[in-house]
Amino acid sequence: SRWCLITSHKLYSSVYDPNEKTFEKLLIANRGEIACRVIKTCKKMGIKTVAIHSDVDANAVHVKMADEAVCVGPAPTSKSYLNMDAIMEVIRKTRAQAVSLNVSICCSCFIYRKQKSQKGVTFIGPDTHAIQAMGDKIESKLLAKNAKVNTIPGFDGVVKDADEAVRIAREIGYPVMIKASAGGGGKGMRIAWDDEETREGFRFSSQEAASSFGDDRLLIEKFIDNPRHIEIQVCTVLADKHGNALWLNERECSIQRRNQKVVEEAPSTFLDPETRRAMGEQAVALAKAVKYSSAGTVEFLVDSSKNFYFLEMNTRLQVEHPVTECITGLDLVQEMIRVAKGYPLRHKQADIPINGWAVECRVYAEDPYKSFGLPSIGKLSQYQEPLHVPSVRVDSGIQQGSDISIYYDPMISKLITYGSNRAEALKRMEEALDNYVIRGVAHNISLLREVIVHPRFVQGDISTKFLPEVYPEGFKGHKLTDLERRQLLATAASLYVAEQLRSQRFLGTPRIPIAKSKRSSWELSVHLGDGTYPVAVSKAGSSFSVEVDGMKLNVTSEWNLASPLLSVTIDGTQRTIQRISRNASGETNIQFLGTVYKLQILTKVAAELSKYMPEKAAEDTSSILRSPMPGTVVAVSVKPGDMVSEGQEICVIEAMKMQNSMIAAKTGKV
To answer: Which segments constitute the Lipoyl-binding domain (predicted)?
Structure first.
């Protein structure tokens, strides 16, 4: 039933020819939402699928969706999803005819081993030369230069140590970007503004690169300050009998934190047709230069004058590919499978449209109030995707009851909305975020919603520095206007009264037949933020008349208190709210306009008596170093008895493949 629900909301319209033979069985050497995405297309094409999984992923969604599933090792990716010996053995045992992988190192390793042993197996993707050339940022930059592709100034060799990194950085001129040669996804990447940051960046980037990619080589290039991040999707076929190469328009990926994308859209508000064509032609030129034969993405940085520079080429299906599928109508996974089988592309460049607008938000299990998103772990105690909202697509690899662990990326899903224009797509995204139910872990819904409704984003005035520029003191959640504050107070008070009325009834009848007639008015005290507000509520049918700040508001709803979502109309304005939690002392958490607000609702008498209640003293944490996220301690820089100064590194925590330096908050003795 879940599969039917998802496919009924697909936002691409490719035709699947049952007479076009491809493969009988395909092994997917991946996990999460991308594995589920490949399985969906395979089902439509009549291809049986084999999933691999680690021991902690035994009950994962991609395992349940596949026709067969095999465990390939313990939780760490190096011992499971990147364990090529185990994967090759699964291929042999299941007799899979094709393999889909999504990690460049794993891909090239597979192709090499396939050439030695499993010669009858096809890889869904480009050949080993293209993967190795484009997977290595140093080599790819040299190839791009030779293909007449605009490149960023920098050092084209391997940086040997921290001292050489400092020397190169000085020659290029600060600021510089230190990057893992085999990297991607923001891992193994640091911006340095001086010598000290260069040394620190070299250390952390090399360690992250070794941990994530098994390759600690680094390169350094000039950091383009305040750019846009725009990429071109390419789909190519280059073989003896046919040669064809397409660019499938662009994706704007400028909203980022820690060099990782958060919000993407297609097309870009910034590009004109001439710049779009120039970027597309350079992307195709690079693909042809390496004899690329699959779907791939060429990423560019674009400055305010629309000068663009090659950043990297990703030889895999990108996380943000759905927005391209929405505006072109193509199924990129289907195209990759067809190309791997040897079929030519069915389209010419003139056939590729830009139909409408698509926006994608990456929903992460992260706390957005900590550095725009530090990982959160836990079990999804309640999970409900907003698929009832029109023109919404959700690519996910989890379900209610799934565990978000420290071993893998904290992504919950990719939420995509489509509209005939940008305003319509953004409005639907706003509605979808309000209707997304996630319980059990922290999530970044509040940040995503604030981004898409911010005036700068709505106007298209964005860059990769959008988040630190808009929130220089860090993200604090939605700031309520006076009207919104009154709406929240009125809604919370009405919800409290509705619950009080429900508790007086049992199976639709009064608990005590001889009870007095029901009350029709309540005097409450509601605490929100730094203020406490008197609120008067009176009931009229299914509506409540609420007086706040001397103003009356009419609040109407079906008051289905068992539902995680509650649609409320306040003086004609519809709002979707979620009551996250409540307790017997009147405290309740309500998600309103994306942000969760803490309120305490008491009767007038209880509020007067609460001043006699003792307050719990806050914990003194000034002498404690507490990790802001779960993870693994990979280095400890001090020992008992050491004197440390404020800002000195105490230890390094690795969480979801990212390394974070924990520093002392004050001078003291360990």
So the answer is: 616-670
φ/ψ of residue 564, rounded to 5: -70, -20
Q: How far is CA 669 from CA 543, 639, 642, 645, 646, in A?
A: 61, 10, 6, 9, 11
In CATH, 356-472 is 2.40.10.220: no
Is residue 568 within 8 A of residue 578, CB to CB? The reply is: no
Q: In degrees to the nearest 10, what's the CA dihedral of 424, 429, 435, 439?
A: 180
Question: For residues 289 and 299, what is the distance between their CA atoms, to the nearest angstrom?
Answer: 16
Residue of 312, 325, 430, 450 marked active site: 312
pLDDT one-digit tens code per residue, 505-523: 766 666 666 555 567 889 9
CA 334 to chain centre: 24
Q: Name the pTM for this structure.
A: 0.85
Nearest to 433 by CA among 452, 459, 461: 452
Position 241 scores a pLDDT of: 41
Homologous superfamily of the 128-152+227-355 domain (CATH): ATP-grasp fold, B domain (3.30.470.20)
CA neighbor of 444 nearest in space, from 482, 477, 472: 477
Q: Considering all CA atoms of the chain, what is the largest pairwise distance in Å, rounded to the nearest integer?
A: 90
pLDDT at 104: 46
The CA-based angle 599-529-613, given to 5 degrees, is 65
CA 116 – CA 88 distance, rounded (Å): 11
pLDDT higher than threshold 80 for residue 609? yes
How much is the average pLDDT of 158-180?
88
**Cα dist from 183 to 122, 167, 206, 301, 457, whole Å:** 25, 23, 10, 17, 29
Q: Does the fold of domain 356-472 match that of domain 128-152+227-355?
A: yes
The whole-angstrom distance between residue 270's C-alpha and the CA centroid of its chain comes to 23
At residue 91, φ and ψ (nearest 5 deg) are -60, -45
Helix (H) or strand (E) holding 144: helix 137-146
The mean per-residue pLDDT over the stretch 244-272 comes to 92
In angstroms, rounded to a whole number, what is the distance separating the alpha carbons of residues 71 and 58?
A: 7
Enter the DSSP assignment of 462.
Answer: -
* Total residues found in the chain within this entry: 670
CATH 3.40.50.20 fits 25-124, yes or no: yes
Q: What is the pLDDT of residues 322-355, one digit of tens each?
A: 999 999 999 999 999 999 998 988 888 888 989 9
Transcribe 252-321 into DSSP letters.
EEEEEETTEEEEEEES-SS--HHHHHHHHHHHHHHHHHTT--SEEEEEEEE-TT--EEEEEEE-S--TTH
Please tell me the class of the 155-222 domain: alpha beta
> Does residue 312 carry a catalytic annotation?
yes
Report, at the CATH architecture level, how domain 632-669 is classified: Beta Barrel (2.40)
Report the alpha-carbon distance of residue 5 to residue 182 in Å, rounded. 38
| pLDDT reported for residue 291 | 85
pLDDT band at 2 (very low <50, low <70, confident <90, very high): very low
Q: Which residue ranges make up each domain of the chain?
A: 25-124, 128-152+227-355, 155-222, 356-472, 482-503+519-611, 632-669
Quote the strand ranges of 583-666, DSSP E: 587-592, 595-603, 632-636, 643-644, 649-655, 658-663
In contact, 220 and 169? CB cutoff 8 Å:
yes
- The CATH code of domain 482-503+519-611 reads 3.30.700.30
Banded model confidence at residue 544, pLDDT cuts 50, 70, 90:
very high
Coil, strand or helix: which one is 77?
helix
